[in-house]
Amino acid sequence: MTMTAQREFFEYSIIRLVPRVERGECLNVGVALYSQAFGFLGARTHVEQSRLCALDPDADVTQARAVLAAWELVCAGSEAAGAPGAEPVGRRFRWLTAPRSTIVQPGPVHGGLTANPAADLDRLFDLLVL
Fold first, then answer.
1. Taking the model in full, what pTM does it have?
2. How far from 33 is each of 72, 110, 126, CA to CA, in Å?
3. Could you tell me which of 26, 66, 74, 128 has the fewest CB atoms within 10 Å of its CB?
């Protein structure tokens, strides 16, 4: 008899880059995934310069990457993330996924079941971003 790992609920949000907010066009550039049961919060991000510049030839790719790196630091609970990085895991996820009208925006929060949140973060990143 094979034992299977317990599957637990998780939530995720696609991280979108909206280079020109007034146009409403966006590019999927990352995924943030949270599992309360596993105490997991992680983000994976990637900006493909050619795709971003197709939406806005004047886009600042370096700045976009810096903002996304900050998302990853907050998820990791890094001291470099400042006060948001020191918050409990669930509060950090809610803070990151709160609606905003900046160039980096979270998409709607979706849910699922997982036995391995890190593997599902990689799977969703490959499926929805790359």
1. 0.92
2. 11, 9, 13
3. 66
